[in-house]
């Protein structure tokens, strides 16, 4: 197996493990600090992501590219200069933004978020900024050398340490108040990231073949051209991420003010937002790891076909990808919709928030489409168009949230509908952009057949819960049996409607074969 393929497989496996551990982390947090604590956590978290995005400036991708080019030429001096300049920039920015976040925390919590308790999680998470800054540089270095193992192991280590510490910290601080428990969960995140950095640093020290500290400041002073090269790649790359980070930052602010206009008290608004973003959304987005793996395989496949001007092959791979996303995403939606209450109960110890899943699940087929469509746009050199689509969709999301959530008849459901509306619009814009570039056939009959299969499976699944299980999944075994029967029925219907060929079933675990 080539170095590239081995690295890709390592990242894919680590990505799956990290996503599952991240989901377990959400479950542990929810069970330890409850919906209101999760709300405080989730309202503070987007601010951190925005600050980290500003600190990194897209440099991890630029570092990876620059190191790869330097290594290809055997230029160790250039590699050292890339590292020293990157560390100087990210550490300087992190030392600027970390105290800025701490100083801004009172204003953010009291004025923007309308809940003063968010101050504690904001201050608790601030020390993670310089840690992430240094980690991102080292990860970029290893990726540039096509050594994916350190980055992959560090991600898994971070999640494992975080989960272990959250249990201890949250339990220790819960008696002081929910805001302190949420802050403790943030501290666990900081220590998890610190453990990851220690591992990365140890691996870097063991693998590097040149002294970094020697003439460190001299390398920085002579690194103006290197900085320009890094920023020329990093700043355009960070465009889409910045749009997403800004949208996520404004989301809890708009939510809190909108719900206040609807007559919802700050504490209740925080709890409701926690149920939506900390309970329901992680479940709805969990199946996307399947389409993420598909997207990873799609980029080189479509890029190669497009470069050779084999547009027939591009269309074939596009159709296969969308079909796979539709059928697997459809199964996820059916299971989440039918078994929303028992799934929430078994995972979080409460069925609160199940209504959000039922409300949003039908729209999330568009979310599962988004990954493959974005990968195709990137493969066709349409990243700028994808960024514009993202900007329009996120603006729409914020607007719908404000209009609906501020009305008493919608309240927090307006937030759910706003998120769904933004997701649908971005996906439709991606779809339209691809259609404009590639003339491909839209099989309307396939979508009608899919609708029949999904609705029939939902109806029979609901019948199973109400009649066979008497409205109660009394054991985990009942839930698993119900999900298994529903999945089998869905697959049988797909085969009967000729949406799924029997040979396809052997291909599902191996996405790269599916699009070959």
TrEMBL record:
CDD domains: MATE_SpoVB_like. Keywords: Cell membrane, Membrane, Transmembrane, Transmembrane helix. GO terms for cellular component: plasma membrane. The chain crosses the membrane at residues 40-62, 82-106, 118-138, 159-178, 184-204, 248-267, 279-300, 321-340, 346-366, 386-405, 411-432, 444-465, 477-500. It is found in: Cell membrane. It is a multi-pass membrane protein. InterPro entries: PG_synth_SpoVB, Poly_Biosynth_Transport, Polysacc_synth, Spore_V_B. Its main location: membrane. This is Stage V sporulation protein B. It comes from Lederbergia citrea. The gene is spoVB.
């Amino acid at each position: 197996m080539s170095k590239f393929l081995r690295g890709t497989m390592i990242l894919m496996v680590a990505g799956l493990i990290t996503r599952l551990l991240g989901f377990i982390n959400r479950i542990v947090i929810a069970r330890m600090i409850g919906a209101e604590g999760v709300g405080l956590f989730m309202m503070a978290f987007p601010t951190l992501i925005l600050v980290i995005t500003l600190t990194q400036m897209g440099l991890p991708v630029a570092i990876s590219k620059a190191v790869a080019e330097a290594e290809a030429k055997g230029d160790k001096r250039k590699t050292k200069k890339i590292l020293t300049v990157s560390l100087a920039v990210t550490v300087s920015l992190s030392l600027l933004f970390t105290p800025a976040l701490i100083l801004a925390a009172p204003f953010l919590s009291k004025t923007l978020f309308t809940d003063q308790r968010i101050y504690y999680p904001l201050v608790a998470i601030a020390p993670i900024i310089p840690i992430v800054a240094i980690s991102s540089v080292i990860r970029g270095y290893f990726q540039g050398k096509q050594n994916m193992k350190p980055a992959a192991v560090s991600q898994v280590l971070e999640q494992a340490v975080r989960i272990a510490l959250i249990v201890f910290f949250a339990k220790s601080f819960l008696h002081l108040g929910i805001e302190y428990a949420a802050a403790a969960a943030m501290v666990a995140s900081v220590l998890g990231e610190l453990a990851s950095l220690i591992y990365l640093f140890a691996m870097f020290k063991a693998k590097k073949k040149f002294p970094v500290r020697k003439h460190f400041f001299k390398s920085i002073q002579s690194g103006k051209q290197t900085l320009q090269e890094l920023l020329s790649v990093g700043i355009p790359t960070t465009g889409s991420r910045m749009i997403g980070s800004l949208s996520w930052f404004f989301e809890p602010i708009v939510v809190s003010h909108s719900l206040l206009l609807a007559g919802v008290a700050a504490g209740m608004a925080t709890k409701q937002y926690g149920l939506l973003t900390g309970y329901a959304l992680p479940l709805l987005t969990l199946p996307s790891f399947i389409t993420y793996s598909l997207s990873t395989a799609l980029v080189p496949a479509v890029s190669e076909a497009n470069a050779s001007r084999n547009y027939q092959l591009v269309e074939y791979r596009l159709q296969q990808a969308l079909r796979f996303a539709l059928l697997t995403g459809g199964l996820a939606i059916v299971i989440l919709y039918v078994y929303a209450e028992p799934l929430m109960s078994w995972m979080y110890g409460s069925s609160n928030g199940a209504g959000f899943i039922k409300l949003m699940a039908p729209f999330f087929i568009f979310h599962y489409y988004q990954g493959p469509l974005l990968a195709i746009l990137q493969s066709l050199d349409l990243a700028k168009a994808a960024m514009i689509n993202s900007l329009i969709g996120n603006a729409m999301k914020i607007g719908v949230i404000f209009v609906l959530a501020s009305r008493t008849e919608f309240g927090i459901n307006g937030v759910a509908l706003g998120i769904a509306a933004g997701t649908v619009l971005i996906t439709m814009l991606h779809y339209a952009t691809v259609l404009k570039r590639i003339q491909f056939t839209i099989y309307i009959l396939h979508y009608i057949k899919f609708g029949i299969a999904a609705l029939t499976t939902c109806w029979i699944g609901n019948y199973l819960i109400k009649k066979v299980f008497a409205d109660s999944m009394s054991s985990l075994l009942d839930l698993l049996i119900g999900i298994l029967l529903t999945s089998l029925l869905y697959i049988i219907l797909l085969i009967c409607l000729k949406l799924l060929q029997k040979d396809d079933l052997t291909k599902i675990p191996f996405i790269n074969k599916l699009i070959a």
